[in-house]
Write a structure and sequence with these properties.
The chain is an alpha/beta fold. It has helices spanning 15-25, 58-67, 92-100, 106-119, 148-166, 189-200, 225-233, 251-261, and strands at 5-10, 29-35, 49-53, 72-76, 123-124, 139-140, 172-176, 179-183, 204-208, 222-223, 236-242, 247-248, 264-268. The longest helix has 19 residues, at 148-166.
Length: 283
């Protein structure tokens, strides 16, 4: 019996490669749709079949999945959001869908695309399928722990980050002394950290959370060694991430880099009232 295929609609970064490896270990045949200008070419070495498309070519995605008899797929990897203003070359299917979407924000676009694929008999799986071990852990990961004032900034930043997430603006904020220095929007997390760090002049706290309405079928917020590098370059001192609701890549290297830079990294959860849970010993 031939291996059951699973599709990947791939953006940039290592997530598509990690998923492909995990899926093949499960005995799945992997069919990837790579995005020109985003997906790493080396993905081709980790999948069984790879097709290239441009942003907006939804009809081609469906055609290729039909050809390979794909009935399950995932959305993985990053897309440079500013490209929607200059590099989208939709086919008829993509243009038709685009014109039906009232709000051209992440969640609305991805849900609409997923809806079309579901109508075509292609089920969209959660992005963490086969990769639950990559979810961000709870607790302080670094040798250094947050100070009392940094816990205050985390509480403050958490509420702001959840609110901008609810509005589908972004998932990350940069704060210092209970003041908002930067809010992530279409430019992405690293650019927001750099902007906030410049304004802070040192001591910036970064809080990154899952949007309240985030759909696990779509790419979750992610951090890694690169996030720490950007934070260190920007004079930041702490990264707080929502545990179990975001991804962490190269965890060991990330923590080592944070320890070397004297940066605190902590994973936290929220209670039933939407408040961040601070360890009792730190209250």
């Amino acid at each position: 019996m031939a291996p059951r295929p699973v599709g990947i609609v791939a953006g940039g970064g290592q997530f598509p490669i990690l998923f492909a490896g995990a899926a093949r270990k499960q005995g799945r045949r992997v069919v990837a749709i790579a995005t020109r200008g985003e997906t790493a070419p080396e993905l081709a070495h980790h999948v069984d079949v790879l097709y290239w498309v441009r942003l907006g070519q939804l009809g081609k995605i469906i055609k290729y999945f039909r050809r390979e008899k794909v009935r399950e797929t995932v959305f993985l990897g990053t897309i440079t959001k500013t490209r929607i203003f200059r590099d989208v070359l939709p086919d008829f299917k993509g243009l038709s869908l685009w014109n039906k979407i009232d709000i051209h924000q992440d969640d609305a676009i991805l849900r609409a695309v997923a809806g079309v694929l579901e109508q075509e008999g292609i089920h969209v799986l959660e992005s963490t399928e086969f990769l639950r071990h990559l979810l961000f852990p709870e607790g302080v990961l670094t040798r250094k722990h947050p100070s009392p004032s940094q816990w205050d900034d985390i509480r403050f930043g958490w509420k702001i980050a959840k609110e901008i997430g609810r509005l589908d603006i972004g998932q990350c904020v940069v704060v210092r002394d209970r003041s908002v220095l930067a809010v992530e929007a279409i430019e992405g997390t690293d650019a927001a950290i750099r902007r906030g760090g410049q304004l802070a002049g040192g001591g910036a706290v970064v809080v990154k959370v899952r949007k309240p309405q985030q759909d696990f079928r779509f790419d979750l917020p992610a951090t890694g060694e690169g996030t720490i590098s950007t934070l260190a370059e920007s004079g930041g001192v702490l990264l707080a991430v929502e545990a179990g609701q975001s991804l962490v890549f190269d965890r060991h290297a990330m923590v080592q880099a944070a320890d070397e830079a004297g940066i605190v990294v902590v994973g936290l959860r929220q209670d039933g009232n939407g408040e961040v849970q601070i360890p009792a010993a730190s209250r």
